[in-house]
Amino acid sequence: MEKGTRLIHSGSEGDPNTGAVSTPIYQNVIFGSEDVTSPGQWGYSRIGNPTRSALEQTIATLEGGQYGFAFSSGMAAISAAFLLFAAGDHVLVSRDVYGGTFGLAHRLLPRYGLEIEFIDTTDPATIEEAIKSNTRALFIESPSNPLMKINDFRSIAALAQKRNIVTITDNTFMTPYLQRPLQFGIDAVVHSATKYLGGHSDCLAGLVVTDNPRLAHEFKLLQVYLGAVLGPQDCWIIMRGIKTLKVRLEQQQQTAGQLAEWLNARPEISEVYYPGLAQHPGREIHFSQAEGAGAMLSFRLPDGETARRFVNRLRLPVIASSLGAVESIVSLPAIMSHASLPEDMRRELELDAGLVRLSVGLEELVDLQADINQALAQIS
Length: 380
Ligand SMILES: *Cc1c(COP(=O)(O)O)cnc(C)c1O
Known about the structure:
It contains 14 helices and twelve strands. The protein is an alpha/beta fold.
């Protein structure tokens, strides 16, 4: 079955009991049993809920794994992934990850004895050098946030497997429609389903998929005992979003590609970061593991003041730290999503104040171009 068809027919859609095409919302906590000694399939919704289970099966099918888990937000899913590990474990994390992941790994996890080290994961040799005897995990994103750096899943997974290190990747930017990291040997995929999967800026959600039964067992324990599970209404909203993922993402990607080329030719803009551009570092690796460049791009204006004036003058994109929605969303990572990074790290990562991140929505290309044109005209 083609991936576009799988979005509609994942095998867990609808309700076999009634023929309902849309999965029912089991807005319900307890499921009574007939006999105290033989409980039914469902008991208590934190442990299992049929609507959540349908979403979990859907995302597992789409990512090509056996086990799916739905959490109350992307950060809850990412927290669960880090909590697979224990005090004394060394965990390697890509230097330019999502700001929330950075905050969790930098500010909270060391309190619990996890030894976190941020490294440049675009080069397998750097990873190899950073591995210690207590290294247990490697957390990456590809493309990364916000400079769209590419990590090579195949070589990272091969390296980690040799050393018994669990690999986890955040697949929010690409979605399983464009990239399925498990097929390259990555152990677990996490998502902020708040973004492309939901797609409409109306629902926070997080998802995890793995094909590894031992990790699946642990994720189940984390769902049951941390309790950060996704409610049935929100599961339904994400399932509805997934059904239109193909048409949204294909269109957004096409517009993003055209915008990236157009911005790249503008004299006011010094650099455009988009995996679809010919000069993008890691482009070949990206297209060996993904089926498209996606709809996220970043570019540089000369300085923070210019970037602030430009963003404030845009009329169509919403100014917010989110992405993956039907409306375009613009942000300045240095003062928004990545504001929690220490100053020296921001400088090292070249996340300077002039960097603009754009999540390309479903508006028409010509309208986005006209809007960007008028905003650029007012700052120059
Ligand atoms: C938004 C985002 C998250 C966090 O997800 P929430 O649903 O906001 O908790 C994690 N990773 C990436 C790449 C994101 O864009």
